[in-house]
Write a structure and sequence with these properties.
Elements (H helix, E strand, L loop, with lengths): L1 H22 L18 E5 L6 H10 L4 E2 L2 H11 L14 H13 L8 E4 L2 H8 L9 H13 L6 E5 L15 H17 L3 E5 L4 H15 L1
Parallel strand pairs: 1-3, 1-4, 2-3, 4-5
Helix pairs in contact: 1-7, 2-8, 4-5, 5-6, 5-7
Amino acid sequence: MQAFNTAARPLFLLVSALLLFAFAPCPILDHIKPSQSAQSQRYVITGGPGVGKTSIIRYLKESGYPVVGEAATDVIRYWLDHGVTRPWDKDCKPDFNDEILELQYHRQNETPDTGPVFLDRSMIDTFTYALIPMSGTQSLEAMANKVQSVMDEHFYNPTVFFIDNLNGCEKTEIRHENLEELLLIERHLEQSYRALGYTVVHITKDTVENRAKQILAHIDSAY
């Protein structure tokens, strides 16, 4: 029984936290105020883990569009290479989300705004993850202040592209979530974006090329 408790505790705590998050009023509004504008051409591509965001971003980059890669993957890989076995767990890496947010902030500020730019997740994603108690955060207030400053600058376009999942979530050394966790995370992310006033456009299951074309067609139709 003790062995079961030790092994199952992290997953149990995460699922419990996600369930509480799912049925509570959107907690992001306790920390961040909506503030966005239609002028920016920086488009966020979001969704749960393992749904194909990075493949779409790669396709858009190969098609000539500026992109901002996902910061979380690089942070996880760095700490795995340096002996931290579960960097996404607050017991292993208490400043995990702070580090991701900082990397996102610097990466996105290097992008132009003279044409469409596509971001693999945004700082709003990271803050949503930080609201899940198991995920490491040193200062939720400091993170909120940084996200609010970006919101107040109207940095992201108010249309967010949400990549629908492919009915599965294959675990890797980087991607540790199962399908149940994936579905709950999707719900939280969409809830956060809608609460902050963004229009969420779902990109349906299809080939990478066709999903990218869905995104580009929506942008073309808006102008």
